[in-house]
Amino acid sequence: MTHKITLTQFIIEQQRDLADVSGTFTLLLTNIVMACKQIAHQVNRGNLIGVLGSADTENIQGEVQKKLDIISHDIMVRALNWTGQLAGMASEEADEIIDIPLQYPKGKYLVLFDPLDGSSNIDINLSVGSIFSILRCDAAAEPTVADFLRKGSEQVCAGFVIYGPATMLVLTTGHGVNGFTLDQAIGEFILTHPSITIPEATQEFAINMSNYRHWEAPVRRYVDECLQGKEGVRGKDFNMRWIASMVAEVYRILMRGGVFLYPYDLRDPSKPGRLRLLYEANPMALIIEQAGGACSTGRKRMLDVQPESLHQRVPVMLGSKQEVERLIHYHQMS
Ligand code: AHG
Ligand code: MN
Ligand code: MN
């Protein structure tokens, strides 16, 4: 039998080679992954345990929450607040930062997460996922919002779990990107996709075309040129995908290249994009860059954006480097 490398073995061996890390980080990651396994279990059982459908509540962003948004959020918080590894947490589904209960010790990390991404897909049995980002926290006392508002380049780890036909974890600690598949029989994530790199050449783009009339000129130009196919300036035909689940789109791009766009649009000036900088854009940007791709707002490298608020939204363009660079170029020309 070939030796299977579990996530735990992989992390311990990887961290052993790094000077400034302790076992705390490995434990933290193990706890995040444990929470994701619990979420996977809930997602997988679906209506058998009555977890589908709307919760009839709204989050701070005015989005109607699904029952599973709240369940996933609660699982994350309960799996992490007692561990002693965290100074605080922030979640897409919580208005304010989440303090560590007084009875537990505090640690030196902050975790930010989107507990259930793509939750509009949950009732139609399509892939959803969880996204997380880890920062170091130097605050001596209780962390404040300011401690969370750090550039994506400061993340020490980012990852996502996709609850699809297989449950998979994609992870970076700033030393490349690795993919693991949950072996349900033994309850362990197994390294199945070592050193993931995004294929350079691509003929696939992902964007919600129904927003075309709201986009700015550079994005329209890019998409128009893709649609012109062989007869246009790109000289090749493109294929389009839109799953409405960022985890699934990013996973596809990691596997076979392409570009994913949720650009700035003119629908609502108070929302400079759909996706959230701290819970979605930053962790995905670190993963994509570590896999050799690029992630930009169109005007700035995502990891260099200085966050101004906890639930801030940003335009997102990520994937194969050449495509993202073309989009940046079109923005610079406008
Ligand atoms: P969430 O379910 O966490 O709110 O995120 C959904 C996001 C993202 O996953 C997806 O790419 C996008 O919203 C889909 O938006 P549209 O429904 O506007 O296409
Ligand atoms: Mn999301
Ligand atoms: Mn979500």
Task: Provide an overview of this structure.
With 334 residues, this protein is an alpha+beta fold. The protein folds into two domains: 7-193, Fructose-1,6-Bisphosphatase, subunit A, domain 1 (Fructose-1,6-Bisphosphatase, Chain A, domain 1, 2-Layer Sandwich); 204-333, D-Maltodextrin-Binding Protein, domain 2 (3-Layer(aba) Sandwich), CATH 3.40.190.80. 30% of the residues lie in helices and 23% in strands. It contains eight helices and 16 strands. The protein has helices at residues 7-16, 23-45, 67-80, 145-148, 217-228, 246-256, 277-290, 321-333; strands at 54-58, 64-66, 86-91, 109-117, 128-136, 157-163, 167-172, 177-183, 188-193, 204-206, 239-240, 259-262, 275-276, 294-296, 313-314, 316-319. A seven-stranded mixed sheet has the order 3-4-5-6-7-8-9, sandwiched between helices. Strand 8 and strand 9 form a beta hairpin. The protein is globular. The N and C termini lie far apart (58 Å). The mean pLDDT is 95. Bound molecules: 2,5-anhydro-1,6-di-O-phosphono-D-glucitol and manganese (II) ion (2 copies). One manganese (II) ion binds next to strand 4.
CATH top level of the largest domain is: Alpha Beta
Radius of gyration: 19 Å
Strand order of the largest sheet: 3-4-5-6-7-8-9
Order of helices and strands: HHEEHEEEHEEEEEHEHEEHEEEH
Q: What count of domains describes the coordinates?
A: 2
Mean pLDDT: 95
**Which residues sit in consecutive blocks of at least 5 with pLDDT less than 50?**
none
Q: How much helix, percentage-wise, in residues?
A: 25-40%
- Annotated CATH homologous superfamily of the largest domain: Fructose-1,6-Bisphosphatase, subunit A, domain 1
Bound molecules: 2,5-anhydro-1,6-di-O-phosphono-D-glucitol, manganese (II) ion
Structural class: alpha+beta
